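Why should sequence recovery work at all? Because a backbone constrains its sequence more than one might expect. Tight turns favour small or flexible residues, buried strands favour hydrophobic ones, and helices have their own preferences. The token representation captures these environments compactly. In the example below, the structure is given first.
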């Protein structure tokens, strides 16, 4: 049951990491189709809006995660380790209601492709196989996906290993009967994530840095992450 639950959780996490972002990008470019006389400034507006939305989303995501850690820790102290799982469906149901009533169905067509192909996407003519083909043909996209997958995979290994490691360390130091504040530790992790995303946003928005320097900073980040793990 645990393995099936983890597999379903991995599928849900992948959808959570991709579906809302794809929906947002498509909404920002819904009415844009290349006509040859688009104003350059107008073309940049959706990109700026998407970047700003992502910046705010990641910041509030960390804030929500910090609050979730505190709520989960409180519920676990009151109702045991299964308490947070019993509370989880309430938030899932609320999110489902929001998506059902406030989201419109769309397909993530890029504004840079031809109108004919965009109409095919809008009509649902493209499939997952077409998406895989696009990834295989674009080496940069393939490399980006591989880097993100490997990084996220290592992070999930860390997520599965830190609770027992902390539990053993606390037991050796304070005894077997001491409760580990998992919610507080998780909130601290999320505060660090918010700090990192804030620093990254400062670097991205500042005009003092070029793309090559940002790539070097990303390499340094991966190196530091590897050493930390």
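From this structural description, the recovered sequence reads:
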């Amino acid at each position: 049951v645990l393995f099936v639950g983890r597999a379903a959780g991995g599928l849900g996490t992948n959808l959570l990491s991709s579906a809302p972002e794809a929906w947002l990008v498509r909404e920002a470019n819904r009415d844009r189709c290349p006509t040859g006389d688009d104003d350059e400034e107008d073309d940049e507006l959706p990109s700026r809006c998407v970047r700003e939305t992502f910046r705010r989303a990641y910041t509030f995501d960390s804030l929500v995660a910090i609050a979730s850690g505190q709520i989960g820790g409180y519920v676990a102290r009151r109702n045991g380790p299964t308490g947070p799982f019993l509370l989880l469906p309430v938030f899932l149901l609320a999110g489902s209601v929001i998506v059902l009533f406030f989201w419109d169905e769309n397909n993530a067509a890029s504004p840079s492709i031809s109108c004919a192909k965009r109409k095919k996407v809008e009509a649902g003519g493209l499939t997952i196989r077409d998406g895989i083909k696009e990834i295989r043909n674009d080496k940069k996209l393939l490399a980006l996906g591989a880097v993100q997958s490997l990084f996220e995979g290592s992070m999930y290994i860390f997520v599965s290993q830190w609770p027992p490691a902390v539990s053993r360390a606390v037991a050796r130091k304070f005894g077997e009967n001491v409760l580990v504040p998992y919610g507080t530790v998780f909130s601290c992790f999320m505060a660090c994530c918010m700090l990192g995303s804030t620093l990254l946003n400062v670097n991205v928005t500042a005009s003092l840095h070029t793309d090559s320097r940002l790539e070097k900073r990303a390499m340094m980040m991966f190196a530091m992450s590897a050493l930390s793990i």
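A few observations help interpret the result. Helices lie at 2-28, 40-79, 83-102, 115-122, 128-137, 139-174, 182-205, 211-228.
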